[in-house]
Amino acid sequence: MKPKISVCMATYNGEKYIAEQLNSILKQLAENDEIIVSDDSSTDDTVKILQTYAAKDPRIQLFLYQTFRDPIQNFQNALKKSTGDYIYLSDQDDVWLDNKVNTINKILESYDLVLHDSIVTDENLNITSPSFFKIFGSKKGILKNVIKSSYYGSCMAFRRKILENALPFPKTKEIGQDLWLGLVAELTGKVTLVETPYIYYRRHQNTFTLRGLGGTKRNIFQIIRGRLVMFYELIKFGIRKIGLF
Questions:
Q1: Helical residues (DSSP H) of 57-167, grouped into ranges
Q2: In this predicted model, what pLDDT tens digit does every residue of 149-159 receive, in sequence order?
Q3: What is the DSSP string of 205-219?
Q4: Quick check: 142 and 233 in contact, CB under 8 A?
Q5: What does pTM read for this prediction?
Q6: Which of 67, 93, 136, 218 lies most in the core, judged by the most C-beta atoms within 10 Å?
Q7: In 137-191, where does DSSP find H-type helix?
Q8: Do 85 and 12 form a contact (C-beta atoms < 8 A)?
């Protein structure tokens, strides 16, 4: 039986690009797949656009008017509503390349989490770098990813068991939902990195900032504190879930 796909998206004031992203995803999904969208109090026309799409396509399920004011909690809300066997994370402003789902689904037959490369673009989809992996030196490894994360949700898909192990997310903003899912997958399952890009990763003035791609840098004390919090949460997870320590 073909696995059901859940695409989980957290939105906030994404009116400019969300229609293009939805179009790129919907054409790759089967009839019984789903897109779960959690919107965190958008003040532009994001909700209106989402409602227009959902009215035409029952695969889109909307959870609107959330008041998290927090992208991590917003993503967690979408993930909790998902019912699929394979779960894909999606940003609101990228574009999925053709055959992403078919290709990644095949890889998920042998792995618990897949992280694929992306093509970095400006807001008009002009290519600024052919490989996100090369910019960030993306690799597996707990220590490597605590120091500098390779796990960006827009390029991730995983089996349901990884989500079940990862929930609830740590109550800290020091660990994004995507990094946490990646670290949990490394501790509890099989992870693979795929060097072929399967999305256009759009960078624009409203994109959540990332170090190395024009984001602001934190000072050394903030960095050290963040790493200590990550190790603390991993130790708690190891004791609670899998008895590693």
A1: 71-81, 100-108, 132-136, 142-147, 160-166
A2: 999 999 999 99
A3: TTSPP-TTTTPPPPP
A4: no
A5: 0.92
A6: 93
A7: 142-147, 160-166, 177-188
A8: no
